[in-house]
Amino acid sequence: MINYDVVVVGAGGAGMMAALAVSEDQTLKVAVISKIFPTRSHTGAAQGGINAAMAYKDEYDSTEKHFIDTVKGSDFLADQDAVEFFTSKMPSIISELDYFGVPFSRDKNGRIAQRPFGGASSARTCYSADKTGHVILHTLYEQCLKNNVIFLDDWFLLSLAVEDKKLDGLVALDVRNGEIHPIQTKAAVIATGGFGRMYWNRTTNAINMTGDGTAICFNAGIPLKDPEFVQFHPTGLASTGILLSEACRGEGGHLINKEGERFMARYAPEKMELGPRDLVTRSIETEIKEDRGFGAGLEAYVLMDLRHLGEKRILERLPHVRELAMDFEGVDIIKEPVPIRPSCHYMMGGVHVSDYKDCSTTIKGIHAAGEGACVSIHGANRLGGNSIADVVLFGKYAGLGAKNSAKKLLFGTGNKVKGEAENWNRIFQKMLHKKNGNNLMDIRYKMAETMWKHVGIFRTEQNMKEALKTINQLMEEYKDTYIGDSSLRYNMAFVNYVEIGNLLTLAKAVIIGAINRRECRGSHFRNDYPKRDDHHFLKHTMIYKKGDNYIVDYLPVVITKYQPEERKY
Questions:
Q1: Pick from 77, 339, 342, 517: CA 20 to 30 A from residue 224's CA?
Q2: How is 11-40 classified by DSSP, letter by letter?
Q3: Shortest CA distance to 507 belongs to which of 132, 94, 198?
């Protein structure tokens, strides 16, 4: 059996910040498990920037303004104590990243450049052209290598072993040779990212964003918080859903309907295209529904026009956006507008974090950070630029929390984790030799179609109950599937099988949370309950899993300074 003091699962920004924080103590042995090579993690897809009130672009900006914007953007569902902690710490995190060597773009005075982003009262988004996440990811990887962090690449988390509400270890598949390993550890950081692939091809998420750590924590007894809040990014490429950064709108891009109107004047006359994501998303979909978009059905879209920015500015600030538009839509944004449509982008909900200061959970030894966790600082709607900020800040504090746990806790008996590994070996062998059953790709397609149509941007109880019925049926069909691959090495069919099971587990939680929240708030828009209802729903959804049953409960929102008010832009 393998032993590590701390195991970090996920090698994105949150995972590597956590590993770095642990590795500062050289007496601890820390390993990072990643199902892909670390620098291919999804943090690299974050283009536009990272929020911090540095007050370089706007001398009147402050951490308090960042705090207010984040709470307002969350539609008052964020925990204000956590948000204040987050906004107050972010300037020092940016300085730390700068010290590590992140090549931020600079202003004329040599300071880190900042640009405006949606829902912000000041230009506070620090950036590196339109490749911010990419350069942060590479820099953190270099720092981890410098600190002798052990990386187990092409390893895939299968389950957690928990005994008496304490972590005993975890089970992982070494994809390269097909060996399933029980790993004993005193503490773990779960940082496996979001789960937008439940919408499959209508998402900006990478193909591997399947919520593995979130689903596994849920199965282990940790509740999910606010899973119903799914953010749809306004500007996904029309044909693929691939993200075009909010930097496009931050730099001054215009959204145009088929009548040539900048239609955001109808929905957010002050902020226009720089309204918060949920509002801009619904505005685009309303234009399409009311026949002011181009095309029809799932092929419908509006245009984003960047031509007025000029070639020099586009090449300097949006080079990657231009590449994506050319590669996937055949459009050069210097010369013509690009077709866009909203796409599932980010999960505000996730593993319930009990204490934002160390990112601990309800199971001793397990910490969680990043998109797969819910602190909660995003509430019902995340502001652009707050995601990489969340990832690096709470990744660091999850690592510090895990380091302290590893110092205090002893290794468990190892019996539970050995038993878990034996069970997974049986499942693996069974799937290797199974010759027939339900088609896994059919289940995946039906799940995605159901989620997009019935639990998407606009929601009703009738549609979501239909979706719940379908997902329950798919979960039954999933029990009798086959993978069609008998090889031990690099059996990606088996990985895909486990991933789809994780997505189905989480999709059901999203639907149940959404059905029970009978109001409109942030990204959760109910046609049948068109108003926000603070009297009944100013609270976090908590979903617990007991066997196959999902149990709904609620938790009060922490309000410290700012009372809820109508959110206007």
A1: 342
A2: -SHHHHHHHHHHHTSTTS-EEEEESS-GGG
A3: 198
Q: Which residues, other chains included, contact 423 with Cβ-Cβ below 8 Å and sequence gap of 6+?
A: none
Q: Fold identical between 2-229+348-416 and 237-342?
A: no
Q: Which of 171, 160, 157 is nearest to 210 (CA)?
A: 157
pLDDT band of residue 148 (cuts 50, 70, 90) is: very high
On the CB side of 314, how many CA atoms lie within 13 Å of its CA? 19
* All structural domains of the chain with their residue ranges: 2-229+348-416, 237-342, 435-535
Q: Which amino acid is at 311?
A: E
Tokens 């145009």 belong to residue: 256
- 237-342 is classed in which CATH architecture? Alpha-Beta Complex (3.90)
- Do 237 and 204 form a contact (C-beta atoms < 8 A)? no
- The candidate with the shortest Cα–Cα distance to 503, out of 277, 236, 205, 239, is 205
> What does the pLDDT read at residue 202?
85
User: What phi and psi values does residue 165 have, to the nearest 5 degrees?
Assistant: 60, 25
How many CA atoms does the CB half-sphere of 439 hold within 13 Å?
Answer: 4
- Contact between 317 and 251 under an 8 Å Cβ cutoff? The reply is yes
* Average pLDDT of the residues in 178-186: 98
CATH entry 3.90.1150.10 includes domain 435-535:
no
- pLDDT, tens digit, 9 for 90 and up, residues 214-271: 999 999 999 999 999 999 999 999 988 888 988 899 899 999 999 999 999 999 999 9
pLDDT (tens digit, 9 = 90+) per residue, 481-520? 999 999 999 999 999 999 999 999 999 999 999 999 999 9
Residue type, 70: T
- For residue 562, name the pLDDT band (cuts at 50, 70, 90): very high
From 277, 317, 532, 567, active-site residue: 277
124 as an active site residue: the answer is no
Can you say whether residue 524 is alpha, beta or left, with left for phi > 0 and alpha for psi between -120 and 50 degrees? Answer: beta
Chain mean pLDDT for the chain: 96
- Residues 297-321, mean pLDDT to the nearest whole number: 93
3-state class percentages of the chain: helix first, strand second, coil last, to nearest 5:
40, 20, 40
Q: What value, to the nearest 5°, has the Cα angle with vertex 466 and ends 461 and 471? A: 120
CA atoms of 195 and 229, how far apart (whole Å): 12
